[in-house]
Amino acid sequence: MHGVRVSRWSLAYFVVALLSLLMAELLLMLGVSDPMSAVSAGWTLVAVHLTTIGWASMLLLGALQQFVPVLTTKDLASQRASGITWATMTAGLLLLLSGFLALPGGALAGGRWLLPVGGSLIVIGVVVALGNLGTTLYRAWPWALPVWFIVTGLGFLLLTVLLGLTFAISLTDPDWMSPNVAAELFGRGLVAHVVGGIAGWLTLTAMGVAYKLLSMFTLAPEHRGWWGRLAYGLTAVGLGDIWVNQWRVVTTAATAGWILAVGGITVYLLDMMRLYRARKRRSMELNARMARGALVALAVLVALGTWARVTHQWGRWALPLIFLGLYGWIGGLGLTQLYKIIPFLTWLESFGKKLGKQRTPRVQDLVNEARDAPAYALYFVAVLMATLALAFHWVWVFRAAMGFALVATADIARALWRVRHPRRSKRSGVSSTVPRLD
Amino acid sequence: MEPVVVEVKGIIKQRLSLFGTMMKTVDTLKPGQSLIVKSTFNPAPLMAHMRRKGYEVQQEKQGRVIITTFIPQTSRVSGNQSPGRIMDIPIEGPEHYLDNRGLTPPEPMQRTLGLLNDVPINHVVVIHNDRVPVFLLGQLDDEEIPYEIRPQEDDSAIVRILKTHPLRG
């Protein structure tokens, strides 16, 4: 079998992802979730996990359900398992968010069981996803470069959700572990949770996905040679080193990890520049044009992160940089690539079977790039503004920026909704965006 | 299986059309059979044609004579691998060539299925894509249309598709 069928579940993942992002942006805009004054408050944890699990993780997991078969030219091991992961992750997320609100002093009374049950469901979802994707990948050995990024990213995902479940249990039952262990867990463990989740899982996976996706849609060479291998090797080893040494008091080793990871991501960014320059498709579509915004965000993140570490200003810049990584790099890449992935999957579902028998629209006909481009520009400007606001504690500027980001995301979501549900002309009953099929 | 040997000098002496004779000879090749062409010039158009058909080309020079050997690639990858069904069907027949290189997904699929619908039964659509067209192959699997993939050195792929029946859709 070399053919690949359209994933039955990817779009359901994307719906949860987009709704989560919109909800997180709304909470941040309204000031209900305020990362500047109360990072560990229930509502802030809600916004953080809506962004990390609801938006970014569901987005990447949904993309992988389709992307792993494309990379391996093997059908996904189980579509049912894909659905199970979606259901358990979605239910787990809802319970987890409710659990944060049920923490002492929170908006919900009672419900101590919500956090551990929600966390357990998320872990189950991830384990099922790992089994499903892992079986598919196992059948495709030896692996291409993007697969190495994805496999390493999935490893970090498991570590991250297991740590997250430990936090959930500890928050529910503080006597579960000794005070010393709890202090370690909520100190070093929290950093490992953030590094493993944002850098290990989300960044490594997004790097691998972007390598394949952007080369596919810009017709650039897929084989990245030693540039790609170096980018993977340095980043993966560096992040692994940071994660392990976060638990030990060996700062030299952790510093070496930082240097390796920064070196790896820098090589990756340079290689992406080469990829764009070597593309055969000179006129780029919106997703490829705007993805450069996400890559710029990653470059700024690396540069500012290095500067903050060297000048010992990490305490001040950690929050803005985490925000830039989540919203600028991962969020930007996700939103831009959804603009190609959703029309592509919709086109395959709706028109693939009709090809050769009747006139079918092109994928580009399902979207209106001129209409939708400003939303992407607004999104990236809003993210930059919010990052600066977080750095300089401009509360109202941050909330205004999140308002702009919300408007931009809502407009992008509208455009994606229109792809699935084209507007029909009242007179003819025919879609105004999709050409007639007769 | 014995290879078919063609001496270009003999064809020219008989004042036959070199191109027409060579094409007829190529059409008579059996699956797995090699072709050896002896000529005093480099048969570049024939080499390009045979490469497109999935033959490996080897050349050696003996004095003024160039011996070009066309060997069918044995590393053929077939699509639907249901045992004893589609695998056994040789992908042979009059060919229709489509160069899909330089087109982004799903344009290659669009063009290929369009042509596949138009060509008569038992004709072969040969496509050359920048990448293995995984979604197209998925659709061919669903339609039970046999195909074979010939990965190329430059990462592109030649896929030969035999239209055994009209597309159901």
TrEMBL record, chain A:
Domain of life: Bacteria
The keyword Transmembrane appears for this protein: yes
Transmembrane segments: 12-31, 43-64, 84-107, 113-133, 145-170, 190-214, 226-244, 250-270, 290-308, 314-335, 376-394
4Fe-4S listed as a keyword: no
Keyword terms of this UniProt record: Membrane, Transmembrane, Transmembrane helix
Name of the protein this chain belongs to: Uncharacterized protein
TrEMBL record, chain B:
InterPro entries in alphabetical order: DUF2249, TusA-like_sf
Domain DUF2249, chain residue ranges per copy: 98-162
Domain of life from the UniProt record: Bacteria
UniProt xrefs under Pfam families: DUF2249
Name used for this protein in its record: Universal stress protein
Annotated source species: Sulfobacillus benefaciens
Species lineage: Bacteria, Bacillati, Bacillota, Clostridia, Eubacteriales
